[in-house]
Design goal:
Chain lengths: 413, 413
């Protein structure tokens, strides 16, 4: 049987254990298993935000001499340390939603045919694509993916068969089940349509290897496993060989060649900088840089190894103690096919989630219709805390404590 | 003759004088006349950023219970205290560029015809419209506006004559000359096409009165006169009666009705919230809220009155001492037709701007081909400092000191 001593032994052997000390822990009694939604505050980020605020106050507009290159500089940091991409292929600005709109719109401008995505893709991706389908008068094909295993190469091949497909958009890690998609086989199944990967739930949790896997386009979020703070700017990736042929639909002055010569018609800046739009939010970018540095320092291979151990701990306790309480594993069994969160399905998942937060001081989240998500960001999550959270969960459900929480809305992202 | 004693008397009589103490002044020797590009750091904002950072660290994802309404809450604050709009008509998120894309795109989705703008409109506005014209296969008519007086009602009438016009996009205050457009007469001249106003260079500097002037659509920047920090989120305004008929092209999860019920197709939230896209940047929103509060407290009528006095001081010194040094007034003479910055044209404006910054510790900016812009945000600019800056300018040009600055690029926004 899995027990506390086993979890503590894993902590003692954890090569990433010291990274925990680089984060703010304001309330040691609460166990946080929702870093897949909003990551923790790094100490370095708190300091960096102070410095950037002071720099605004003292340098004023002169600060732009340094700030202007932040979207590319942080993009290069993410490329090298997190995404496995080349310098000049990643840029940080705007939200994931806006970046997806830019890249998907750019592809639709150059390729005829349908847009393909899957039923398990994150809502904002489906909404953006629905809007683009209307705008460009294209078909949006939403194929059914398995709710646990996520989109498979054969699904993609079938969805792309028999008609022109302009673009496929998929999530690397499914937001609900945590299923990890097979990038190379899916890219192959979609050919010749390019696949645009949403890396929101994988960036910072495991290696992405955009370069070696031949990924053409990607977007992703920085406020989850990259710990850049609520609503932090997102990134986008355009493989170098595609950059000259794609043009963002949102033409703004930060994407203009020689931006401060303002008298001319729009002429996109070369490279990935041409995908910037308006003025990027500088304070928020500083937080992305600190988060990216921490992740790069820990190393994505070590993060993946620890994430697999952490999620295995949840699966083991599920099998030993939770299954008999009505839980079903909502994530793939093979740790090589999971990201860094586990979904536990239960008919009363919503009230269990609420009771966990309000009574057991375990922060998780609920995703409809029946999923309790447990996120275990490997950079700062201890095995003993995961074990303790699962003990509290077992205890709570055994005693039926979730049956008398009130039923108001629970709104967390 | 205008002299220092006159300027000091104006400071002594200034009802807004004490607001200066609410801002960080890190370097009292430097005179900052570029708040029209990036406003100063309010003390309250420094504190608010600390608080929000701490809240992220302690509340983690639970912070969203409070943060989720910030785009609308700050929008309402701007509506009431800065823009003269009604509650539920303004929202804060994304950049001015992205917001302009959303609103202009929404109009093009409902109306056939050309897009009209003017040659003096801010570059990002022209770039966005150029992109939308390509996307929607529309004509973009860029009419020539006077470089000093900006777009006039007759210009707009002529540009709209003889063809269907879907949308007119203009700046309320011209970014280079500071010319203030006549909203009501121009709206009348454009009818039936709606006019989308870019308020970036007027919001926080003078009354806007969106409601009473019948404005239908607007966007604007918060990092200039609203002092919200480099790249702070922008606002957008949609008059209530138009909200149900317009739909943003960028459909994201923050604009979705009942956002956390994720299983459904896109269905825009009612009201102005439907114009949100991705996750808004929370730290940056806090800075917008503090900046908006300060402006509302000072009152837009008092800000306009002081801005007129400040720009009059520049015009007076121009006429008395700068004209003979080769300067030409690049802004309207009538203070009722100006915003809160003055443009001084000079054949050597670029090197003068550079010498002012490097040798005279006066921060201004240059806008091609020949404009030195002097911004005098009324919330924290002293008359005596403006006078001192002009003295330094006269001294520098009289001695030809600008002729030996190096010629590298000067990149400030």
């Amino acid at each position: 049987m899995t027990d506390r001593a086993y979890a503590e032994r894993l902590d003692a052997e954890d090569p990433l254990a010291l990274f925990r000390e680089r984060f703010v822990f304001a309330d040691p009694e609460t166990i946080y298993l929702d870093g897949n939604s909003l990551g923790r505050l790094p100490l370095a980020t708190r300091e960096r935000l102070r410095e950037l605020t002071a720099q605004w106050g003292s340098e004023l507009v002169r600060g732009w001499h340094e700030w202007i290159d932040l979207p590319e500089r942080i993009g290069d940091l993410l490329a090298a340390g997190v995404l496995g991409a080349r310098s000049g292929e990643v840029i940080v600005a705007d939200s994931t939603t806006v970046n997806l709109f830019k890249l998907a719109g750019a592809v639709l401008d150059t390729r005829p045919g349908a847009i393909v995505t899957d039923s398990e893709n994150f809502p904002t991706d489906r909404y953006v694509l629905d809007g683009l389908a209307r705008l460009h008068d294209r078909e949006l094909r939403v194929f059914e993916a398995d709710a646990v295993d996520g989109p498979q190469p054969d699904d993609v091949g079938r969805a792309c068969a028999g008609a022109d497909v302009a673009l496929v958009v998929l999530s690397h890690v499914a937001y609900r089940s945590g299923a990890l998609a097979d990038i190379e086989r899916i890219n192959g199944a979609a050919t010749p349509a390019p696949v645009l990967w949403d890396l929101s739930h994988s960036a910072g949790a495991l290696p992405i290897e955009l370069e070696s896997r031949g990924v053409q386009l990607a977007v992703g979020c920085t406020y989850k496993y990259l710990n850049a703070g609520p609503g932090a700017p997102a990134f986008l990736y355009v493989r170098e060989k595609l950059q000259a042929d794609l043009r963002t639909p949102i033409q703004g002055w930060f994407g203009q060649r020689d931006q401060f010569r303002m008298e001319r018609a729009y002429d996109p800046a070369p490279g990935v900088r041409g995908f910037l739009a308006g003025t990027p939010t500088i304070l928020a970018l500083g937080a992305v840089e600190e988060g990216a540095k921490l992740t790069a320092e820990a190393g994505v291979e070590r993060l993946r190894a620890k994430a697999a151990q952490l999620t295995e701990l949840i699966v083991a306790v599920h099998d030993e103690r939770l299954a008999e309480l009505g839980f079903r594993l909502g994530s793939p069994r093979d740790p090589a096919r999971r990201g860094a969160h586990v979904s536990l399905a239960h008919d009363e998942a919503w009230s269990i989630c609420r009771a966990l937060i309000e009574r057991a001081r375990v922060i998780t989240d609920f995703r409809g219709p029946d999923s309790l998500r447990l996120g275990v960001p490997p950079l700062y999550t201890r095995f003993a805390d995961v074990y303790e959270a699962l003990e509290r969960l077992v205890d709570l459900v055994e005693h039926g404590e979730h049956r008398d929480v009130d039923s108001g809305p629970l709104r967390v992202t």
